[in-house]
Design the sequence.
């Protein structure tokens, strides 16, 4: 008896059709999945933008209140109401100074606290630049000290005076 072939022609055609379908559908499926991921990322960005808009609307509404504006002017610009004597106490420990008024104390706002907690520069930026220019100038004027040459390797082909 003759041995029966392992794959019949029908099975071979069926496998080829299935492989063709997989190859044809692979690219659109990958595009669909990547587009879904992009859509979800854009939705997340839109939600974040909506939250920012809501925060800005709340800030705008807060700035419409004259009492809030006065409090911010006192905290940020060191303004005082007529009749008050504003002063700034110097802390001997070197911590940043907190402005205050003698007549009344206003509650601190989060933005004023954040501004007060920022480290202050020891000197202005232009002083730092000028110091670096001075340092470069003094380095250029200083006499250059000769550096010793490294020892030459054995069998050096360069000529030497002996």
Sequence:
């Amino acid at each position: 008896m003759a041995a029966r072939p392992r794959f019949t022609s029908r099975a071979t055609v069926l496998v080829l059709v299935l492989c063709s379908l997989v190859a044809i559908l692979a690219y659109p499926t990958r595009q669909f999945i990547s587009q879904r991921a992009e859509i979800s990322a854009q939705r997340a960005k839109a939600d974040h933008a909506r939250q920012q808009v809501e925060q800005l609307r709340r800030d705008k509404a807060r700035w419409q209140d004259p009492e809030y504006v006065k409090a911010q002017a006192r905290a940020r610009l060191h303004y005082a109401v007529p009749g008050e004597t504003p002063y700034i106490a110097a802390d001997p420990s070197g911590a940043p100074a907190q402005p205050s008024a003698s007549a009344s104390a206003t509650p601190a706002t989060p933005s004023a606290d954040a501004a007060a907690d920022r480290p202050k520069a020891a000197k202005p930026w232009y002083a730092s630049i000028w110091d670096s220019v001075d340092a470069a100038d003094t380095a250029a004027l200083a006499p250059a000290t000769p550096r010793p040459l490294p020892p030459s390797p054995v069998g050096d082909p360069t000529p030497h005076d002996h």
Notes: The chain is about 55% helix and 5% strand. The longest helix spans residues 9-63. The first strand starts at residue 86 and ends at 88. The chain has a mean pLDDT of 79.
